[in-house]
Amino acid sequence: MSKKQQPKILVVDDQPINIKLLQRKLERQGMEVYVAYNGRECLQIVEANQPDLILLDIMMPEMDGIETCQRLKSNPKTETIPIIFITAKASKEGKLEGLEAGAVDYITKPIDLDETLARVRTQLRLQEMFHENLQLQERLGDARKAASVGAITQGIAHNLNNLLGVVVGYLDLIKNGHDSPDMVKRSVGLMDHAITRMVNIIRQLGTIANNERLELTALTVADLIDSSIERFNDDYEVHAEVNVESSLEEDTQISANAETFEIILGKLLANAWESYPKDTPPQERNIQLKASIQRERGPAMLQLQVIDQGEGIAPQVRETLFEPFITTKTSVGRGMGLTIARHTIRNLDGELYVKENPDGGAIATLTHPL
């Protein structure tokens, strides 16, 4: 084992004989040992060498082991270093005092060297597992980011290729049939529609990149709901009648970005509207919006539920509803609305999820900090 791989152990005791015994035992097991004779020396050595584990005597003059431990645990740079107390107190109260201060274990005097070595090894292994877990979490986080970027990139390429194919196809029709005004007019209209969808994809990507810098202001929830419904009807060129049920006080406010909020709620309303078959008359597309305060878990949150009685969540997308470009629609250039909506609302410490409606259809629930 190389020097760099040796576990670094700090032994802190005001009795030199105890330090000598522990130092000899640990060094024979291939460990690098630092020594300190009081709490202040301990803090200095920890700052300079960052040991893997500390054996700390409780009973020391000036700064005792309890205070030393508390100082180490209050410092973010040293709080994760495991501390084993050396104590002369065999009572339950004495042991609890050390554990409550932040120690992971204790040994009692007179010191049993073999038992101490076993406890040191156990804590070193636990510490190694702790660091391995942190590294694994970091790798998993990187993997998720890479997978997300890959899925979005693949989805963008697929959708833009399809849309470009539409544009190229209609351009060919125009070239070959330029003497037919009706056909040219129809082709230009469909090309314009495809180009608009491509622009929308680029705009949605800009939303992902920029939504961390949203300017938030205090806004009344009732006004936000009204403006969101109005914007939804204008943007989607529909005449939806949304039945709003609110248990909120009239002046209930949230800190939000009005445009972003309207886009997110509008997307949920659009999903509810499109959940009905295409030939369903507007007056039969039942959309309900319930506004309330959620107090079940943690701080109180605004809760908005968009409820429809449409065709429900398709089985093939039930588990992947919030992944990029997941859609049941046959037309190209769709499928990032819910992905962006959830990403944005989570950056504002809210949440967005969709579940089956027991009465048929779906329930989309949005929560937002008050």
From TrEMBL:
Question: 4-aspartylphosphate modification sites?
Answer: D57
| Residues in Histidine kinase domain copies | 155-370
What catalytic activity does the UniProt entry give for this protein? ATP + protein L-histidine = ADP + protein N-phospho-L-histidine
Q: What is this protein called?
A: histidine kinase
What EC number(s) does the entry state? 2.7.13.3
Q: Does the keyword Repressor apply?
A: no
Q: Which SMART domains match?
A: HATPase_c (SM00387), HisKA (SM00388), REC (SM00448)
What InterPro entries would the database entry show?
A: CheY-like_superfamily, HATPase_C_sf, HATPase_dom, His_kinase_dom, HisK_dim/P_dom, HisK_dim/P_sf, Sig_transdc_His_kin-like_C, Sig_transdc_resp-reg_receiver
Query: Which SUPFAM superfamilies does this one have?
Result: ATPase domain of HSP90 chaperone/DNA topoisomerase II/histidine kinase, CheY-like, Homodimeric domain of signal transducing histidine kinase
Keyword list, A-Z: Kinase, Phosphoprotein, Transferase
Family matches, as PROSITE patterns: HIS_KIN, RESPONSE_REGULATORY
Query: Which organism does this sequence originate in?
Result: Thalassobacterium sedimentorum
Top-level EC class:
transferase
